[in-house]
Amino acid sequence: MTIIFQQRNNDCGLAALIMIDQHFGGTTSLSDFEQRYGPQLRPWSGQDLIKFSSYLGLDCQGIRLTVDELKQLACPIILHWGFDHFVVLRRHRWHHFLIDDPALGRLSLPSRSIETQFTGIAFTFKPNRPRSASRRCPTIQMKYPNLASLSCIVLSGVFAMILPMLIKHIIDDIVLSRDLAQLQTIGLITLCVLLATPLLKQAAQAVLANDAHRLGNQLFAQLLGSALPPKQEQLVAQANPEKMLKLTGRLPDSASALSRSPTTVPAHLLLMLPLLWVVLIIDGSSSLLLLINASTVIFLSLFDQQSLTTQQLMSRSVASRCHLQLQEALSHRALLYRFHCDQRFGRAIIESFKKLIDQAGRSASCQSVLLFKQDLTNAVVQALLIYWTAKQTMMGEISLGGLFLILNYRGQVAQYACAISSELTQYRIATADLSQHSDSLPHHHALPPDIQFPHPSLKHYGRQSFDFNLSSAPYRLELAPIDTSAFEALLVFLTQSPRQEDKNWPVWAQQLRGALPQPVSGISDLDPLFSCSILGNLTLLDPLIDSAKVEDALHLTNLSDWVSQQPMGIHQLLNTLDRSLSPLTRLQLQLARGLVQQPKSLVLQVENVLLETSQMLDILDRIASQSISIVLVGRTDLSC
After folding, report:
1. Is the pLDDT of residue 67 over 50?
2. Which CATH number describes the domain made up of 12-127?
3. CA–CA separation, 426 vs 420, rounded Å?
4. Most distant CA atoms of the chain, gap in Å
């Protein structure tokens, strides 16, 4: 059963149901389901699973049971996980359970970890109408796939080396002797060699593809394992969905490169040695020219590898950004139109596509320069070789068959050298890409080492800090780089995670929240829709009921007079992200939305304060007068 990852925070139930449907032979995908039944914008419940499973031709039954009783059920089944998530139990073996998590991938967890997350509710499924068996691509299972693929590549290369020898024998011996019987025998052998060569190449490609699939699964399991604490099996940090989507999108190409290079590079080197040895027997100078040709091609690849790798990585990054923006625009198209973000998203997507085209051009240009150097080297060596071998043939030193053999082997040596250079480049790109994005996954030690908890009050967190003494009350601005800031990590977690109870939060998020006076509001522009993330589990779509709190929030953000002149309702006004409004007005609206919760701490990005410093400091002065602690995080230096 193939793992299907959720595209939005509340898509876990849908992704789990699609996995069950495909296990029973269904062909519905996430996009097909949403096109047929509309986007699912709210978290699923057990009733939703039962309802939509009937649409897919499945009978769903919810049952209550213990962890020990799970072993008696036929898998796969869906488990209610942590009161706010759905996962698929793929199978159980001894005391371990294989879980397909739509958010994190495939996990193997012991029974004690299942007991801490499983709520006791499971859903079983069976088709209510005949279905065709699920189709799977055939794979070749071998005990030593690398050795098998190496053998196939070497054998196909040996047959490709034998064919010119047979033709040389025909030209030098059989044609002159006019032996028809021997010609028929050699012709039959040549036919067998010609038929066996593509079959061996196809077998090698099949073994390499199977090995790439196996290596891809191992890489994904290792990368997910990096998000697990070393001494516990339960997850304490959720992977960033954007990073996971990028990573899963690149794993097939990276796994293919990592599985091919350790096999094809040694195989091509092994095949070049007998070619050079045979040419050395015929003519030593020709063998030296072939050796210079192969060495130059490989050296050029290693010399230009750094620039080509950089351009390829940048192209992949821009392509992933375009893919994610398109996916987000399609998934949230109704909300984008509702909050007037469709034009903003359209402009962002157009800019990303322009960058993608420009970067693709630069990458292609860099690669074409390398290919030009290799082709120029091959052309020069070929011209010298043709002149030298033709001269030796005219002098009687080399036969016509030997001339054909040398020229044919020159093409094979050049082909192997170019293949080695290409494989080495792809291997370096794959290793750099995986290391770059695996490092960006959150680990259990997500907080900087210099942060200690609990804090009695806001203190300097090992970064540059400034004190502001305003007219009403003093407060502190904490400045930290975004990539290491604990507060910025908290904003990322809030804007990209579903609503959760406090007990299900990662440990570092609970600790950080405990370090600040309660409750806490966080204002972030990381999410274009829910740009105001509240630790009290409030989003932009929740209604505003208490008018007194709304009036206080508008007064603190200096919006009271402006709001009274607007025709729209207060709820629609505070939720708008209309790009026609000035950045300062949009920030004031976000601040008002957060201040409705009457927080004791307010977490902002320092870039927002720098929009219009004088007006923003006046607003922060009003907020600080209500004994609200303010923490600014960001990478921009703020001069006092």
Report:
1. yes
2. 3.90.70.10
3. 10
4. 110
